[in-house]
């Protein structure tokens, strides 16, 4: 990726792992000349300056974005509408605004509600980065390397905005893919949001049933794989679940239906049905790997 | 662990990762003088000899165990009863027999049915080893190091048998814990067997809903954690599910019930109920780590 002829002013709202890694990657790529940043947690913002992630911590969102050519809003989905309302009216006419949220339909609706006059400047984005850590201290210029970033253009954007969005993520080392927001939300409901609900629910079933000492002794195998996501932030996942509520409910109902069939087969001791079911699952697993 | 004064003859039935690692660990600990082995797959048995895992590959089970002081039966749960019937009447009076199966009630019932006269020589065992690979080529003398091995004594064993079982696993570097077979099966139903069913079911829901190209693009985050177990052997897990059918059905019904409540809260947009639910889950996750 060739750096732009004139290096840009980047603004990052939300100085966590996602926003911080975007800043580090674009700085390393020679893409930016100045990075302003804002976080509701002033200590996090100060740490971002100290770590060299941003050049300047601003005290309000309007000032952070006012001179920026590229703006990434990397706050939890539940907080994004408020940020949109605070950037409204403060953007340069050629600025590009992107979010990095895990749901896209709700984010687009929030943008329309809070910031409609700027809709041609907005490209919804979702970096699929498989995150196990959080906070600006964990940010890395390599986070997006060889990762996929799903862009879900609204159809109301300018060509320049879309090209800029692609170029910025590619400068981070990522691949970009385009998808309809609705399709993104339906797929992510099952590949990401549902697995989090399943892991949370497993923890609750365990909690209701057993003593901890014995659980610890037996916590190998399958449970270990569920634990990482069961440790995810409850507020963030409540907000994602509610923001993608329709698609997630449909996915959850289909999942429950599958479990009901499985329980029936198990009750009946139906070995051939179970074998067929598990073989199909393994086959899809192999296709995805 | 001090090696026994007189080194032992070990027999291993089932020369995969579990049996092979047990042989390698005990050899390294100076615990054994000779290791005989048997596998229904003659190539696997030959490979075990070539890799130095066993000294001698036998062509039948009775001959494998006839002179052994310690016998580990590390075959899938669905094949274990047949092995018990083939060792019956061929054991030295002081020999110790252990299995390594993921279910314990069914294994004890199989032993009673096929090998009842030797019940005082039998200690049911389940090493919790978090296995991602299989086959004798993956066997390692370190597999059990710092792992927990659950022993579920029947109450009919001799003291010498129980002491020998503990000593052998400790020589492999493992901790041993005692538990009732019923309690083991109830806990493992939720910590291990249920997560496998959940991962298989997630693959099936995905398979029914989406195109693979888009799934691959979106397969970060939660899905990744489910994939490893969804790739587990369908026959092995069918047999485990059927062998632990009662406890697993109960666990599955409790799990479905939790998901139904979650779906209702999601349908109602009940943010405080979801928040409370996810917070409880994260709290148990932290206690288990």
Description:
The structure is a homodimer of 289-residue chains. Chain A has 289 residues and is α/β, with parallel strands linked by helices. Chain A contains twelve helices and nine strands. Chain A has two domains: 8-179, NAD(P)-binding Rossmann-like Domain (Rossmann fold, 3-Layer(aba) Sandwich), CATH 3.40.50; 183-288, 6-phosphogluconate dehydrogenase C-terminal like domain (6-phosphogluconate dehydrogenase C-terminal fold). Chain A has a six-stranded parallel beta sheet. In chain A, helix 4 (80-87) links the parallel strand 4 and strand 5. Chain A is elongated. Chains A and B meet through helix 7, helix 8, helix 9, helix 10 and helix 11 of A and helix 7, helix 8, helix 9, helix 10 and helix 11 of B.
Q: How many strands, which pairing sense, and closed or not: the largest β-sheet of chain A? A: 6 strands, parallel
CATH class of the largest domain in chain A: Alpha Beta
Q: Specify the structural class of chain A.
A: alpha/beta
User: What value does the average pLDDT of chain A take?
Assistant: 92
Q: Kindly, what is the distance between the CA atoms of the first and last residues of chain A, rounded to a whole number of angstroms?
A: 28 Å
Low-confidence stretches of chain A: none
CATH domain topology of the largest domain in chain A = Rossmann fold
Q: Strand order, biggest sheet of chain A?
A: 3-2-1-4-5-6
Measured on Cα atoms, how large is the radius of gyration of chain A? 21 Å
Order of helices and strands of chain A: EHEHEHEHEHEEEHEHHHHHH
Largest interface, counted with CB-CB under 8 A?
A-B, 94 and 94 residues
Q: Any idea how many domains of chain A?
A: 2
CATH superfamily of the largest domain in chain A: NAD(P)-binding Rossmann-like Domain
- Binned, the helix content of chain A reads 40-55%
Helices of chain A, by number, come to: 12
The beta-strand count of chain A equals 9
For this entry, what is the oligomeric state of its chains? homodimer
Shape of chain A: elongated
- CATH architecture verdict of the largest domain in chain A: 3-Layer(aba) Sandwich
């Amino acid at each position: 990726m060739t750096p732009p002829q004139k290096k840009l002013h980047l603004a990052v709202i939300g100085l966590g792992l996602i926003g911080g890694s975007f800043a580090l990657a674009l700085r390393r790529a020679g893409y930016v000349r100045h990075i302003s940043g804002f976080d509701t947690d002033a200590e996090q913002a100060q740490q971002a300056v100290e770590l060299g992630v941003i050049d300047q911590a601003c005290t309000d969102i309007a000032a952070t974005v006012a001179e920026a050519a590229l703006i990434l809003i990397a706050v939890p989905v539940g907080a994004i509408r408020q940020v949109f309302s605070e950037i409204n009216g403060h953007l340069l006419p050629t600025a590009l605004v992107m979010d990095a949220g895990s749901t896209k339909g709700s984010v687009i609706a929030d943008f329309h509600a809070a910031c409609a006059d700027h809709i041609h400047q907005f490209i919804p984005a979702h970096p699929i980065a498989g995150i196990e850590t959080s906070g600006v201290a964990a940010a890395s210029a390599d986070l997006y390397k060889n990762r996929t970033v799903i862009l879900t253009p609204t159809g109301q954007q300018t060509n320049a905005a879309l090209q800029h969005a692609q170029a910025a993520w590619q400068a981070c080392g990522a691949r970009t893919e385009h998808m309809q927001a609705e399709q993104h939300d339906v797929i992510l409901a099952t590949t990401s949001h549902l697995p989090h609900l399943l892991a949370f629910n497993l923890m609750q079933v365990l909690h209701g049933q057993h003593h901890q000492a014995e659980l610890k002794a037996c916590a190998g195998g399958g449970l270990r794989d569920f634990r990482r996501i069961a440790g995810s932030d409850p507020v963030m996942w409540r907000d994602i679940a509610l923001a993608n509520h329709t698609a997630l409910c449909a996915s959850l109902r289909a999942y429950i239906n599958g479990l009901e069939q499985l329980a029936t087969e198990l009750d009946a001791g139906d070995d051939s049905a179970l074998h067929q079911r598990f073989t199909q699952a393994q086959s899809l697993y192999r296709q995805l790997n």
